[in-house]
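ok trying this again, last paste got cut off
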Amino acid sequence: MHELAVTQSILEICLRHADAGHAAKITDINLVVGQFSSIVDDSVQFYWEMIADGTIAQEAVLHFNRIPGEMTCRTCGHIFRPSDRTFACPSCGSAAVRITKGEEFRVDSIDVE
């Protein structure tokens, strides 16, 4: 359900920037979504169609650019992409890791007319 609030924020950001640029229409919205961000593309799209209706963004196409997760081992410093089964460092086996990529979620750009 948090996708509704997220989608409302996306719309507000896009409308604010389109207004500042005196745009008549938003045609495309490019979103960056990290693997660990817990954002569900289909849910955002579902809510978008409801809340963007009647705005200059109502026909905008949402583009989801998924960023893979990356972790860094706190023990040995190895940088790796986690497997589906474990977050342990493949180099030394340590579970002391931190996420260094993949939590992103942002509006990267909008296309306007």
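PB: full thing came through this time. The first strand starts at residue 26 and ends at 34.
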